[in-house]
Predict the structure.
Amino acid sequence: MERLFFYFIAIIILVFSVMAVNSRNMMRSIIYLLFVLLGVAGIYFLLEYNFLAAVELSVYAGGIIILYINSIMLIDKIGVPMEKPKGSRQLLAGLLSIFGLGVSLFAIYSYHFNQTATTTETTVKELGKHLLSYGNNGFILPFELISIFLLAALVGAIAIAKSTKTLK
Amino acid sequence: MIEGVSIYEILTLTTTVFFIGVYGFVTRKNLMAMLISIELILNSAAINFVVVNKYLFPAKMDGDIFSIFIIAIAAGETALALAIIINLYRLIMSVKTKDLETMKH
């Protein structure tokens, strides 16, 4: 049953990610990306990382997609499709990607992973304690850094977007 | 772990999504579309962290926390990049890569 679910989600992710990089309409491209992100959240749910799935849904599918849609409304002429990339460039990029995919898959399949059969559920309580512990393997320093980083990104985004300098 | 699904299948999925993102990043000529490809790449990396954590070291949770950090950094990166793109559009009325020669003004 879970296997079937996984394959269903995998097909959704693959199909919509191909459509997201090939669609010539910007808005459609974003909506396809939204479906990819929902599929990724589904995989997190299947892996029993519920908190991570919730973060993925709220930050990515909720926040970032809305940010993209607002920016597209500010920037793009929605009805006008993007210009088609050159055939030679498409071919080159496709060959490059397939080559890289082949190398990576060869490396993955030739390595033997020691898979463990035990499953332990990760609770949010445990996660929070780990995130805020300053003992061994604690993550308090990156946690604080990320909060400063987010503040800096917020201030920087506002400062850049509202600057009224004009060219020349 | 997902019942009946080995780590190889999930890694195949994430690697494929990663290279679809690389393909989009190379072919697209619009800054916003390139950002979409970057989101695909970041997401596949985040799934990889989680999967390796869950299948190989289920007692630890470092991969989980790293994925949360990846999502946070991706949010900040997207906000900054979109701000730069909006500012650029006001300057040169275009978001195509071929029109971008002047960042320093």
The mean pLDDT of chain A is 87. The radius of gyration of chain A is 21 Å. The CA atoms of residues 147 and 153 of chain A lie 10 Å apart.
